[in-house]
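Section 5.1 Outputs to date
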Amino acid sequence: MAKTSNKKERILESAYRIFKENGLEDTRVSQIVKEAGIAQGTFYLYYQSKLDVLPDLAQQIISNYTKYLTEYGDLDAGLDYNLRLAINRIFKTNQEDQTIPSIVYAGITRSGDIDKWKVIYRPLYDLVANYLVAAKKRGDIGTGIDADYYSEFIISLIESTARGMILFQHTPEEIKKYKEELASFILNAVSWDPVKVL
């Protein structure tokens, strides 16, 4: 059993490196398996195509966000602290490795399995929802805020903004300003009860 998970891990590590070097379009399964040191047939025991690798790579990234926020987050420190922690972590990850997050998130649209992506993101959404629930109990945010929906809005907004910083090649000073404005925008959005529009 350990050999099986080891081979899958080698596939993921190799796919990560090859995607980073070549991009999604120019990566071939044959390159991934050569890098992993496994037979091509072994790849197909785990994945049907190179696109099928993307959710597992995304799960590693999202899991790393969640682990970090679980370790360093603090419900008692308030929403502002935890929100800035999430923004800083997601921005840092996207800045340190500018290729893979874009490739992985592009996989959402290419894979077509939206339910799989919801499962991948659920722990992160739940963690942010817990931040919102705690803030609501303290009276820091509007009582009409639906923590489950808003957690998804918040993560989507942070990720898309972080990717935009890469895409448009902002300076470090601009990135710092964007992070501040993003935190302010989100905190303002949750500070009062939403107006329900039909």
